[in-house]
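Input (DnaJ domain-containing protein):
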Amino acid sequence: MTPSWYDVLGVEPTASDAEIRAAWKTAIADLDPTDRRFRSANQAAEVLLDPAGRAAHDAELAAAVPPEQAPEPEPAEPGIDVESAPATGRSVPSWLLAVVALLAAGSVALAVWLASDLGTSEDAVEDAARTAQARAEQAIVPVLSFSHERLEEDRAAARSYLTPSYREEYDRLFDVISDNAPSTETAVTGQVLDSALVRTDDDGTRVDVLVFLDRTTERKDYEEPQTSYDQVTVTMVERDGDWLVDGLDTTPLD
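Output:
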């Protein structure tokens, strides 16, 4: 029997959204992002936290088991492949994926840890990291959202969350968006679903935050808005008492 998404996260089919989020965070805590299990855990969370996706998955599981048989849960296999796992049925607009690629500042190595022997107190470092996490959740929507009707206003809003060095990178990439969005009448909006700390340096002034979100794209050639699900690693740095975005690494989950 192929493990279900519940098996991947080690939760019961009756698990609440809160339990699924907690299991997802635990599942990725000690994994490198290149590990298949990391991607599988993210895929499982994407399916199970989406009401329609979860309902479809439950129906698929029910259809695979004869009515007289009770399902027997199996532990998740360490090497489970995303390709061999149940499909979500969602698709990501190719144009939006191009925008995602443009906004990605480069690969960020992920490793979850909060050191216990630091130059500053562990509590202070953790407090700083939590502040950076909240700021990342606040920043990611304006940084990854825009409308063809107010491009310069959106650019200015996003730049207020960025370090000076990343503003230069962002401006170059946003210029490409500005060249295309008016003709396609494109608007992209994001919604944060959850986030998790994945790395902090030893003095708590540089933090990586994994943000789990969906983004909705509207275009004149779309009959209806299209939604993609992404995980974004946001690199946050402390500058004069404020936390600013210094890099993004985006991975679509569809």
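DSSP finds eight helices and five strands in the chain.
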